[in-house]
Specification:
The complex is a heterodimer of chains A (about 325) and B (about 475).
Chain A: H1 6-34, H2 41-51, H3 55-72, H4 74-83, H5 85-105, H6 112-139, E1 143-144, E2 147-148, H7 158-182, H8 185-216, H9 218-225, H10 233-250, H11 256-276, E3 279-281, E4 285-286, H12 287-290, H13 294-321
Antiparallel strand pairs in A: 1-2, 3-4
Helix pairs in contact in A: 1-3, 1-6, 1-7, 3-4, 5-6, 6-7, 7-8, 7-11, 8-9, 8-10, 10-11
Chain B: H1 5-44, H2 47-81, H3 83-117, H4 124-153, E1 158-161, E2 164-167, H5 170-174, H6 179-207, H7 212-247, H8 249-256, E3 262-263, E4 267-274, E5 279-286, H9 289-295, E6 301-302, H10 316-342, H11 353-362, H12 365-379, E7 384-386, E8 390-391, H13 392-395, H14 402-433, H15 438-442
Antiparallel strand pairs in B: 1-2, 3-6, 4-5, 7-8
Classes of the chains: A mainly alpha (about 325), B mainly alpha (about 475).
Chain lengths: ~325, ~475
């Protein structure tokens, strides 16, 4: 007897995990993207210090999301990963290189520049790869009988290159607004300066994507243009967030740019979700068709009911401990 | 030559999983050792235990960090290269592997930080508790992984409907017939690994006359431990083998190099298995011994590879030789444990140069033994991925081309070579710097953010290192 609509509950859990990951790993990937352009080496120390205590907690959401996807929506897992085979490899490689840079850069002296590149390059590759995944998702996947049947590089199109660059710019924006929040002095001033050009870049790319997307897929076009529906509030909110970033940077407000950038990401994400809902492997399979067995979803849900609150509490606690400004040469206690 | 995606995927999985396995197998044993040291420190208030624990915790941090990095790749391998398997087995493996992730996260989130950085910041009892929980966490983590693997060896508690496994009994699936044997065998292997590494490193310090008291104590502890678990592993391994004989007779036949089901089967010490002609060359064996070991009768019947068609046989030579490498290394470990006992009177174990040099080399032996053991059990299951129910050929990603598989295989080899040689190099630096000067380093605690490697206060390069260990020429014995 199926008491709950478990696939729906799981869709919310995974959906929540994805946006948590995008927001949280987004800003630390963004810091990595901005790394080579920082004013000086001391600023780089500060930049790395500002994300070092939290980045691996942020990436936990990715691993949890991957494992959760296998458990709850195996069809998504077993179609997306083969379809994005090369992209997944690049993503993992990027994450490995930036991950070890966190460990080694602070230990290194003469070889420090190598770890700087490892951090920046890894972050950039991971960001573009994730953006390309989003684009591939909008495009949809060629399947037959629950199996991916497309080619190795089907995902690589002008559209996915653009979404890759879009997320790259978006993460950089999250990174720069994070630095506004967490740093001061020269570095903060630099972050203020680059934020508006980054915002402009993000808006241009997002605008092109928004115009392009309805032509990529009929279903998305129908959803947005067949009737003027409530979902149009999402792009309106996105623009409001963008305006808020613009205004708060002009006014030199410290917290608002980051908060508004998160808002921009959330509304864009929701826009993507409503474009494809309830398809989780577009254009073929809905979330109910992709779900694993009821008892399997239940078995893991029992554990997660206890774990997710702890994860959230722990995450909040970590950020609380490391609240306030970060300075070069000053660590955490 | 046509690139075979199945073959390349097998090589790739073997590569990334072997690379990953060496880190947890060490940290599981080491975590327990640290917990014991913390317990001794808590009970006796002897600073030697604190010193040892602080040092080995640094080593733990570095190895744990490398294990986490290599583990991320593992969680995507099933999807990228074995998508049919992922889809078929997700109802069971999905939740099991997710629980492993949850456990690992709990471990890192709640207790690892306290263990690594909390020594002077939390009460000693809390620090001890954190050490115990980290040790427990590593075991729970391996519990899930070994349950998943055992289910692939001896599937139970599931039924296959339309190409998808459905769980009919969670307890039967999790505690499937080979689970406890594998879990015990692997747990002891982790202790052996931790024990021989600590013994080997302590021996090296003793040879160089560094921190004699602490390292003598560490070595002494290890030798007592190894004296119990090295022989115990032989017994557990034997039981594990009998369990395999019951459920996977073909694997045992490959391990023994036994082509024909027969009685009075010799234990082969050497042979070159010839799969094509279904026979061995240059056999050297002890008559009847394989029968005796497997059936406990001299003329007991041992199943042969001929019980299944040739295409359902695993690659015999790999299984046969991996098994011999594992057993030989196991015997060598027992030998060293016994030598430690013989050298016990008068504390000669800490002075005998030959013994200490031998221990240095033995510190890598358990890693090879563990990998050889995994080769036996994994390659020995071939061509099956889920024994008797799903073959590797059915499991591989249908859309995967040979070129794609080759690209990522080479990619992972290059990435791992770069990243992990840096990691292993750094680990060597930590070992070289050693137990000395730990107080001085704490002053610089504030410079760095709290990362696992931050627990190890050792610079990456040799030059510019202010805490360089004493030169090796000071060795005394």
């Amino acid at each position: 007897m199926e008491l709950f609509d478990l696939p729906l509950i799981w869709a919310f859990i995974i959906g929540f995990g994805i946006i948590m990951y995008v927001l949280m790993d987004g800003f630390d990937l963004g810091v990595g993207i901005l790394f080579p352009f920082a004013p000086d080496e001391e600023s780089r120390d500060t930049m790395m210090n500002s994300v070092a205590p939290v980045w691996d907690g942020n990436e936990t959401w990715l691993v949890l999301g991957g494992a959760g996807l296998l458990a709850a929506f195996p069809l998504v897992y077993s179609i997306l990963l083969p379809a994005l085979y090369i992209g997944v490899f690049l993503l993992l490689t990027g994450l490995i290189f930036r991950g070890v840079a966190f460990e080694f850069r602070f230990k290194a002296r003469s070889s420090r520049y190598l770890w700087n590149w490892s951090f920046a390059g890894g972050s950039a590759v991971a960001a573009v790869a994730q953006g390309a995944v989003v684009g591939a998702y909008i495009q949809g996947f060629e399947t037959a009988g629950g199996v991916y049947v497309g080619g190795a590089l089907d995902w690589l199109t002008p559209f996915t290159v653009l979404t890759g660059l879009g997320l790259f710019a978006g993460y950089a924006l999250l990174g720069s607004t994070w630095l506004i929040l967490k740093t001061e002095g020269r570095l903060q001033e630099w972050a203020y300066r680059i934020t508006l050009p980054l915002l402009a870049a993000v808006l241009v790319v997002f605008a092109i994507i928004s115009v392009w997307t309805p032509f990529v897929d009929d279903m998305i076009r129908a959803r947005w243009f067949s009737s003027l529906s409530i979902i149009w509030i999402l792009p309106v909110l996105t623009l409001l967030c963008a305006f808020q970033i613009f205004r708060s940077v002009r006014n030199r407000t410290e917290g608002m740019p980051f908060a508004a950038t998160m808002g921009l990401f959330i509304t864009t994400y929701l826009g993507l979700v409503v474009s494809r809902w309830p398809y989780v492997v577009p254009p073929e399979y809905t979330l109910w068709e992709a779900a694993s067995a009821y008892e399997s979803q239940m078995f893991l849900l029992v554990g997660l009911v206890f774990v997710i609150p702890v994860v959230l509490a722990y995450t909040a606690w970590t950020y609380w401990i490391f609240r306030g400004k970060v300075r070069a040469g000053e660590g955490y206690h | 030559m046509e690139l075979d995606p199945l073959f390349l995927s097998r090589i790739q999985f073997a590569f990334v999983v072997s690379f990953h396995a060496i880190f947890p197998v060490f940290t599981i044993g080491l975590a327990s050792y640290i917990a014991v040291l913390e317990g001794l420190a808590f009970k006796t208030r002897n600073q030697v235990w604190v010193k040892l624990s602080a040092f080995w915790t640094k080593v733990f941090a570095v190895v744990f960090g490398m294990g986490v990095v290599s583990g991320i790749v593992m969680s995507f391998q099933f999807g990228t290269n074995w998508s049919n398997f992922a889809q078929a087995s997700a109802n069971f493996l999905g939740p099991i592997l997710s629980y492993e992730v949850i456990t690992a996260f709990f471990l890192e989130a709640a207790f690892l930080g306290v263990l690594l950085f909390g020594r002077d910041k939390v009460p000693p009892g809390v620090h001890l508790f954190a050490a115990l929980m980290v040790a427990l966490g590593t075991f729970i983590s391996s519990f899930w992984i070994l349950s998943a693997n055992s289910w692939m060896q001896t599937p139970a508690g599931t039924e296959l409907r339309d190409g998808v496994f459905y769980v009919t009994s969670w307890s039967e699936a999790i505690f499937n017939p080979s689970f406890w044997y594998r879990f015990t065998h692997m747990g002891l292997a982790s202790f052996l690994t931790g024990g021989f590494v600590v013994a080997g490193v302590s021996a090296w310090y003793l040879l160089n006359g560094r921190e004699m008291e602490a390292n003598r104590k560490a070595l002494s502890m290890c030798l007592w431990l190894l004296l119990i678990i090295a022989p115990a592993q032989l017994v557990v391994g034997d039981f594990h083998g009998l369990n395999t004989l019951e459920h996977q007779p073909t694997k045992v036949a490959a391990m023994e190099g036994n082509w024909e089901t027969s009685r009075n089967v010799p234990l082969l010490l050497f042979a070159i298995p010839d799969q094509e002609n279904q026979t061995n060359h240059f056999e050297i064996g002890i008559p009847g011994l394989a029968s005796l070991i497997l059936t406990h009768e001299w003329d007991g019947e041992v199943p042969g590879l001929d019980a299944v068609p040739a295409e359902e046989q695993p690659p015999v030579a790999i299984v046969f030789w991996s098994f011999r490498v594992m057993v030989a290394l196991g015997m060598l470990m027992i030998l060293f444990a016994l030598a430690g006992l013989l050298l016990r009177p008068g504390g000669r174990y800490a002075r005998n140069t030959w013994f200490l040099q031998g221990l240095r080399f033995m510190s890598i032996a358990p890693f090879f033994a563990v990998l050889a053991g995994w080769f036996v059990t994994e390659v020995g299951r071939a061509p099956w991925l889920v024994q008797g129910l799903m073959t590797q050929a059915e499991a591989v990603t249908p859309s995967l081309s040979g070129g794609m598989a080759l690209f990522t295989l080479i990619g992972y080899i290059v990435v791992y070579a770069l990243v992990f040689s840096a990691g292993v190099y750094y680990l060597m630096r930590v070992l070289y710097v050693g137990l000395e000067d730990q107080q001085e380093e704490n002053e610089h605690d504030a410079e760095r953010p709290k990362r696992p490697f931050s627990a190890a206060h050792v610079p990456f390069e040799i030059d510019g290192n202010r805490h360089q260990g004493k030169p090796t020429s000071q060795g005394g014995h």
